[in-house]
Each structure stands twice: as structure tokens, then as C-alpha cells.
Amino acid sequence: MLNFTPLHAFVAARVDGMALVDTLTTDIREEIKGALRRYSVLIFPNQAINDEQQIRFTQSFGPLETTKIGTEGTGTPLVILRNFDDNHHLVSTDHRQNLNNRANQLWHTDSSFKSIPAHAS
User: Using one digit for the tens of pLDDT, what is the confidence trace for 70-103?
Assistant: First the structure.
């Protein structure tokens, strides 16, 4: 049984009662979709999942886009945002990776302009 705890009067809810690694039933998927319509943002706390599990969970809601060339995660359905290098050292504030991360925090459309717009991001 899923439990949705509103985090604000207008937006966001915490989701408890499921592990993202579990296979979703049709009922659970529809319950999540309804909560996403109601709250717009869903937080699934304390979920330890790997990339493949993330992809499997999100694919249960529909097909995924392939990450564009020039973005970390190119050719996969993952967009990777991080502020450290391959050796796990923080990159400088003027490093291209950090500049891209800052640009991502600005208002943007997340594929709403495409012929098949994103359901969620």
C-alpha cells in the first residue's frame, strides 16, 4: 500500500510503501501516475537503485528518450548530472560540467516541444 504525504500545500509528496526495485503492478503504476498528476513532484526517499533499476522503473511508465550527443550519458536513457570527475574529485566552479549543471537549473522545457512530449522528468 502506497502512502503519499504532501510536502507543500500546492506541490510535492513523499512516497512511502514501495521499493523502486520491485516490479510495478498495474494498480501501483496507476496510483503513482494519479499522484504525479495531483502533486506534480514525487519524492521516493531512501531508495538505493542502480542505473538499470532506474531505467526499468521509468520504462514502466512509457518509452524513454535517448540522451543527446554532448551530454554525459549519451546514447542511453540516462542524463548524468554530477560535480565530480572520473576520479571522484570535485571539479572547479568554472569547469564545463559545473557550467552545464548551472544551466540545467534554469527554466527549461524538458521535451514539451517534441511531437511526443515527455510525461515526466
Answer: 777 777 788 777 778 788 888 788 877 777 767 7
**Structural domain boundaries, residue 44:** 1-62
Burial 78-95 (b: 16+ CB within 10 A, else e): beeeeeeeeeeeeeeeee
Q: Are 118 and 110 in contact (CB under 8 A)?
A: yes
For residue 119, the model assigns a pLDDT of: 75
Residues with Cβ within 8 Å of residue 11, at least 6 apart in sequence: 39, 40, 41
Cell 499522484 found at: 35
Residues 7 and 20 in one domain: yes
Determine contact, residues 72/104, Cβ cutoff 8 Å. no
Supply 54's cell numbers: 532506474
pTM of the predicted protein model: 0.75
Determine the Cα–Cα distance for residues 54 and 77; give it in Å rounded to an integer. Answer: 10
Cβ burial of 23 (10 Å; 0-12, 13-18, 19+) is exposed
Q: How many domains, in total, are found in the chain?
A: 2
The Cα 5–Cα 119 span in angstroms is 22
